[in-house]
Amino acid sequence: MNRRDALKNLGLSLGYVIATPTILSMLQSCTTPEEKWTPLFFSDKQAYVLQKLVDLILPKTKGIPGALDVNVPKFIDLYTSATATDEQKEIYKTGLDAVIEELGIPEELNPPNEKPFTLEPEKFDAILSKYLSLTKAERLAYAEQENIVFETLMKIRDQTVWAYKSSKEIGKNVLAYDPIPGQQKGCVSVEKATGGRAWSL
After folding, report:
1. What is the DSSP letter of 146?
2. Which of 45, 59, 67 is nearest to 119 (CA)?
3. Dihedrals φ, ψ of 177, to 5°?
4. Less CB within 10 Å around the terminal CB: N or C of the chain?
């Protein structure tokens, strides 16, 4: 089963709150395309890394938009800026800086009179594989060590899936959606009820 199929069957069980009206309004504000995204919370370098990671976690596939298509990085930035405590923000930034250091990204992404910096997608894929494609024992070991790179990448993955599933585009057009639920049928398989897709609400 690939990542896209797994997402379709994944329930919203990531430890995040149910989408309140305030959060839904944040999601709505992130649906309009913009020429350039200026982060509120992350630095330009952190935003660059976040976008690359999010794109690999949920890439665009045939007929299904990816996380970048529904502005997931912008939402994560807005959500963190509006809801995280000062301590949580500091931990998040420290974690992203640790990811940046492990990736070997230089201090300046766009040095004067030089070509803007880009890092091969393979480097981002390698760090995701190293920290997220783990056995249960390896995950426990990283958690016990309080490995900040591991914790940060887990947070980014969870926020990415949560924001993606909560977006209007995915909720209405990819997941099973029924704005006015009718009768309840308790003994019907998910395959028969929704074609195997998880419910968006």
Report:
1. T
2. 45
3. -135, 130
4. N
